[in-house]
Specification:
The strands form four sheets. A four-stranded mixed beta sheet has the order 4-5-1-11, covered by helices on one side. Strands 6-10-9 form a three-stranded antiparallel beta sheet, with helices on one face. The chain folds into two domains: 106 residues, Alpha-Beta Complex (Ribosomal Protein L22, Chain A), CATH 3.90.470; 113 residues, 4'-phosphopantetheinyl transferase domain (Ribosomal Protein L22, Chain A). The chain contains six helices and eleven strands. The longest helix has 22 residues. By secondary structure, it is of the alpha+beta class. Helix content is 30%, strand content 28%. The termini are close together. It is globular, with a radius of gyration of 18 Å.
């Protein structure tokens, strides 16, 4: 069992698992033993082994991560889907306030946790073949698409995935999925850490209510976190790597 940790009111912890780091058959069998019958059935619906493996590791990361913060064994966690389609811990199960969000992409899985606030996390693999500028022209706000085009060509792909990650993290934190059009909010990025967000009036949201952050966990991946602020101060975001049940 991993060491029990405490989440301060100002903290967000993000745990990352590199898929290719896990090859131990015994460890994979231990992950499978954590799942419910329903989760095992969901896993088998994936046609490809790659998808089944990603699902298994994602469930293992979620269960073991949550058990770092609450006196609940990894196999005992149960989850419900809220009215917006967002997974949450089953009511009455967790003895402490705990919110979480998951994301996975080719080679990397993320589980973000916080005590109280709406939270979204997204990871993206930048090596996939994608016409980034064409996608931005079609789906992003004009401000973002124009800013992307102004960059040198060798910077456009990285900036596209940074924008995409941040947008996905915000949408996931809101819990409304594709009900939020990507073009109805836009991000202002510079070469530093500063991130600002603006909204179309139809979204009825306020920039000051949100904290957004971006990370480069590997040369091939980008990570973003969106947090609805509980106070004017920023949350402290701690990103760590882990192999579930091993550390």
């Amino acid at each position: 069992m991993a060491e029990r940790r405490t989440l301060s009111p100002s903290a967000v912890h993000v745990w990352l698992t590199a898929v290719n780091d896990i090859t131990d058959t015994a460890l994979l069998e231990a992950y499978a033993a954590l799942m419910t019958d329903d989760e095992r059935q969901r896993q088998q619906r994936f046609a490809l082994e790659k998808g089944r493996r990603a699902y298994l590791l994602t469930r293992a990361l979620a269960r073991t991560t949550l058990s770092r913060y609450a006196d609940v064994a990894p196999q005992d966690w149960r989850f419900v889907i809220d009215e917006r389609g967002k997974p949450e811990i089953a009511p009455g199960l967790c003895p402490v306030p705990l919110r979480f969000n998951l994301s996975h992409t080719n080679g990397l899985i993320a589980c973000a946790v916080t005590g109280h606030y709406d939270l979204g996390v997204d990871v993206e693999w930048m090596m996939r073949r994608t016409n980034t500028v064409a996608i931005a022209d079609r789906y992003f706000a004009p401000f973002e698409a124009n800013a992307l085009r102004r960059l040198p060509q060798h910077r456009q792909r990285e900036r596209f995935f940074e924008l995409w990650c941040l947008k996905e993290a915000y949408i996931k934190a809101r819990g409304l999925g594709l009900a939020i059009p990507l073009g109805q909010f836009w991000l202002h990025l510079d070469e530093g850490e500063r991130i600002e967000i603006s909204f179309d009036s139809r979204l009825r949201d306020r920039a000051q209510d949100w904290q957004l952050a971006r990370f480069r966990p590997t040369p091939e991946h980008r990570l973003a976190v969106a947090i609805r602020r509980g106070t004017a101060a920023d949350q402290v975001i701690d990103v760590r790597n882990t192999i579930p049940l091993r550390d």
